[in-house]
Amino acid sequence: MIRKEMIAMLLAGGQGSRLGVLTSKVAKPAVSFGGKYRIIDFPLSNCINSGIDTVGVLTQYQPLRLNTHIGIGIPWDLDRNVGGVSVLPPYEKSSDSEWYTGTANAIYQNMNYMEQFNPEYVLILSGDHIYKMDYKIMLDYHKANNADVTIASMPVPMEEASRFGIVVTDEDNRITAFEEKPEHPRSNLASMGIYIFSWKVLKQALITLKDQNECDFGKHVIPYCFQNDKRMFAYEYNGYWKDVGTLSSYWEANMELIDIIPVFNLYEEFWKIYTKTDIIPPQYIADSAYIEKSIIGDGTEIYGKVYNSVIGYGVVIEEGAVVRDSIIMSNAVIGKNTVINKSIIAEDVVIGENVELGVGEEAENVAKPKIYNSGLVTIGECSVIPANVKIGKNTAVSGETTLEDYPDGMLQSGGIIIKAGDNV
Prior knowledge:
7-stranded parallel β-sheet; 33 strands
């Protein structure tokens, strides 16, 4: 019988609705990051760098690009005869067909997958965080404490603590209380949504809670283990970790990559981040081009000026165009003399000539102020922006737009254009 000491289950089914039009056609873990990666590359690379060679990736929302990207796991050396990477979508069973309802329910529905490896420990990961972590050190910590559950946690500013699951610990780091998004937090140690369970404990909890509506780790499994006096410890992590779940945190995390000494270093020899890369020609920088402090992807052609930006692969920035403080994802085309300020432009977008993005004063977004803020312009995948229009701040556009969509050639700050068939 196969026996794996620890297997990983990577939750990658989330829509990531706080990323607005960026995730209307693609799951959040498949969103581009840093010019050449996708968000899911980070936990997958952490797994192989930590010596974990069996990973189940649980997908649900818009899984196509994620499935294509992961394939059989070759870039991460996860194309194994035994173990390797397996994509686990919800499937129809003989009695009924069930979508995953909650993080723990998704794991419960894949009990058979986990059973076949007869693991001693199961590592639960989320597919939408940017960080580097050696899970082996966390496992050693779990074993040293003879723990049933170890929760990776990190200190956050007290004023932000109510956004997280919060752990309260004693002097040995044993968890004495767990509060999911408390109004008045008793500690600033936040759960990172990374857990190591001893398999027997996890299995028993999932079976007991199987009829729970929308069964989640933070709301159900962790409190259940706590109430049943399981040995639960907090593993404190002090490295770089970013939840890129909002447009502003996603923009910030990309911008941090281009600092002279980046807080998060993608270039470390000993902890590489692996990804699926297409075979494309090198970048072309024309005589007319000027680039300052930016990341430029392969196959990109630059004829204009780029400042402080992250540009993906296969992008064309035409003559006279100026791009500042922006993220432009793969295969986008920026027309001549177009000026782009503080924008996030998704894959396969075409922006016409003489367009201005990010103009004027800020105004609150009319439809979704909690999503479209921080002065950003967000353009969804495969969108078309016609020539000679201006777009203000805190705006979003998705779909093939024409001049008629812009009264007086302008989308005012706080405005939104979503064409039929696209969602926000």
